[in-house]
Design a protein that fits this description.
The chain is mostly helical and 310 residues long. The chain contains twelve helices and no strands. The chain has a single domain (3-309), classed as ABC transporter involved in vitamin B12 uptake, BtuC (Orthogonal Bundle).
C-alpha cells in the first residue's frame, strides 16, 4: 500500500463517515424525543432521488440539497403523524416508511437512470490548507456537506445538553407525562424532532447523488440507512460517540470500495458484506452488555403518549 492509496482510503473514510453521521444524527434526534423511526433507509432514498432530479432540472446543487431535505422531512412527518399523532406502532410504521420511500424513489427516478448529473457539490477550496501533506487531501478537500455534518453534530450536541429546547426534547423521550405537566407540548416536540431527523436523512441521501456517486440508480442507498440506525445504539445516543462510530463504519465502507485497488485479492461479495457483518457484531456485543448494566436508551423510546393517559 503506497501513500496515495492510504490517503485515498482515509479520504473515503471521512466522506462515508459524514454520510452515515448525517443520517444517524437525524435518527438520534427522533429517538431522543422518544420516537423510533426505522424509515431512515426510505428517507435517504427519497433524498437521493429528489436531489438528483432537482440537480438535473435546476442545475443548482444547493437548491437540490434543500429540496432533498424538505422531501426527507415530509416523508418523516408521515411517520410522525401516524406514530405521534395517532399512536400507531412505531416499528411497523418505520418499516412501512422504508418500503414506501424506497419504492417511491425507484418510481420517481425511473426516467433519470443513466442521465449525467445536472449539479454536483464540488470540494471546498481551502487554499494552502489543502496542500498540507496527508491532512490537506484528507480533511481539506472534501465536499461542503462534510463540513456541514460536523457543524450540525456540534450544534445538536450543544442544543441537547445546554439549551432549554434540548432539555425539553430529552424530557419528552424520558417521561412524556412529566414533560406535559411542565407545560411543554410533547406532540410538538416529537413531531419537530421526527421532521428534523427526516431532513438530515434526506441530506445524507442527497450527498450520495450530488457528490459520492453523482448518478441515480435504484438501490443507491444500499442499506446504509440501517447502519445509521445501528450507529445511534452504538454511540449510546450521544452525538460525539455516534460521530466516532460513523468514522469506524465509514472506514468499512471505504475498504469495500478501495481494498481491491491495493492489490489485495479479496472477494467483492465478502467486501460488500463487511459493513453489515460489523453492524451485527456490534449490536450483539451491545445486547450482551445491556444485560449487565442499564441501557442508555431514552426511557420512553417507542412508547406512544396520549395526554388523557397521564
Amino acid at each position: 500500500m503506497n501513500e496515495a492509496s492510504l490517503v485515498g482510503l482515509l479520504f473515503a473514510t471521512v466522506s462515508f463517515g459524514a454520510l452515515l453521521y448525517l443520517a444517524a444524527l437525524g435518527e438520534l434526534l427522533a429517538e431522543k424525543a422518544g420516537v423510533l423511526n426505522l424509515g431512515v433507509e426510505g428517507m435517504m432514498a427519497i433524498g437521493a432521488v429528489t436531489a438528483f432530479i432537482a440537480g438535473v432540472e435546476f442545475q443548482n446543487p444547493w437548491l437540490a440539497l434543500v429540496i432533498a431535505m424538505l422531501s426527507g422531512a415530509l416523508l418523516a412527518s408521515v411517520h410522525g403523524f401516524f406514530t405521534v399523532g395517532l399512536g400507531a406502532e412505531q416499528v411497523v410504521s418505520g418499516l412501512s416508511l422504508t418500503i414506501l420511500g424506497v419504492g417511491l424513489a425507484a418510481y420517481l427516478g425511473k426516467s433519470y437512470v443513466g442521465l449525467p448529473p445536472g449539479a454536483e457539490l464540488v470540494p471546498v477550496e481551502w487554499g494552502s490548507l489543502s496542500d498540507w501533506p496527508w491532512v490537506g487531501p484528507i480533511l481539506f478537500s472534501q465536499a461542503p456537506i462534510v463540513y456541514l455534518a460536523l457543524v450540525l453534530g456540534i450544534t445538536v450536541s450543544l442544543t441537547l445538553s445546554r439549551t432549554r429546547l434540548g432539555l425539553a426534547l430529552r424530557a419528552a423521550g424520558e417521561s412524556a407525562s412529566s414533560t406535559d405537566s411542565a407545560g411543554h407540548s410533547v406532540l410538538g416536540l416529537r413531531l419537530s424532532a421526527v421532521a428534523a431527523g427526516g431532513a438530515l436523512a434526506g441530506a445524507s441521501g442527497a450527498y450520495l447523488t450530488l457528490s459520492i456517486t453523482p448518478q441515480w440508480a435504484e438501490g443507491v442507498t444500499a442499506g446504509r440507512g440501517w447502519i445509521a440506525v445501528a450507529l445511534v445504539i452504538f454511540g449510546a445516543w450521544r452525538p460525539g460517540r455516534v460521530g466516532w462510530g460513523a468514522l469506524l463504519f465509514g472506514g468499512t465502507l471505504a475498504l469495500k470500495t478501495r481494498l481491491q485497488t491495493f492489490g489485495v485479492d479479496f472477494s467483492p461479495i465478502i467486501l460488500s458484506m463487511l459493513p453489515y457483518v460489523l453492524t451485527l457484531l456490534i449490536l450483539l456485543i451491545i445486547s450482551i452488555q445491556a444485560r449487565k448494566r442499564p441501557s442508555p436508551a431514552p426511557a420512553a423510546l417507542g412508547l406512544a403518549y396520549r395526554r388523557e393517559e397521564r
